[in-house]
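Take a specimen:
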Amino acid sequence: MIEYVGVAHVHSLFSDGTGEIPEIAKFADESDLDFLLITDHNTLRGLQEGFEKWYGKTLCLIGCEINDKENRNHYLAFGINETYSTRLAAKEYVRKVKEAGGIGFIAHPHEKRNHMEEHPPYPWVDWSIEDYDGIEIWNHMSEWMENLTEQNKYNSFLHPLRSIVAPPTETLKLWDELNLKRKVVGMGGVDAHAHKQNLFGFFEVEIFPYKVLFKSIHNHVLLTEPLAKGNSKQKVAKSKAAIYEALAYGRCFVANDYHANSKGFQFFAKSGKKKYYMGDYLDFSEKITLSVTLPGQNAEIKIIRNGKEIADFNSDRAEFEVKKTGVYRVEVRYLNKAWIYSNHIRIGI
């Protein structure tokens, strides 16, 4: 498997961000990211104006963040060529994305905050819908804003990376429950806008510079072939399809790489001579072993089955013999901080 690292859920001047797409892509390239997923609100201008391409070693892909008329049910849609009216119900635009051959992820599903009137929460509320591919299990901006208090606000403004703790427990619980019924992929988002804020009444600071947020919540995708680099239509389309297919399939994991570089993390199941990776299904048998390898440092490895922790290791690797059917994933904590969240491997379910 070839591993590529990127960020998702990024806004530009085409909606409520402050940067132009080439500038944002330059920051991503300088941050050694392999891909960048732009998701401006209810617009694909970045795609229509030709900004979807390689910038140095970073592939910039253009999706959008769709919402309903009440500004709820935000949906990160990729692989589509047109946007949909905000007058549509969430059920309709989720269906249209699927029918168009695109993929979609529910954004900040459990967002909560009531202390910033100018920035209300935008939760997902229609859980009767089933056509989505996955959910955003970790959103940097949502967590930062929800944790903001009068006491910590100045420190949080100055150090936006240090205040990010872990994905919401409520979201992880729901994610595991949904996976008992069908595959629901987990992804992470920085939700970057590069907002500017007046501090102390006399100077303006950029709270979330793109380049700063690009150090935090990453999506790592595993591909069977290298990305096709170059800005011909064929090469961009091939690389785009490979990244979107890996995300939709769940052959990916989420990590806060501000704590440590997670590139090289491995989680797979072994049955006989065959390996099964994140997103895969395998039949249950008496000789299945889960294998976890960390990239170069010891950490706390938790094996999760059907949403419940069933094993814990403090090491740079772990093996676990599977005794029951279920959906299995891994959580890793480094120096007592949430670090890596794998997608599920389905065994006999």
User: Anything to note?
Assistant: The domain at 2-256 is CATH 3.20.20.140 (TIM Barrel). The chain has two domains: 2-256, 266-347. DSSP finds eight helices and 22 strands in the chain. The CA atoms of residues 104 and 133 lie 5 Å apart.
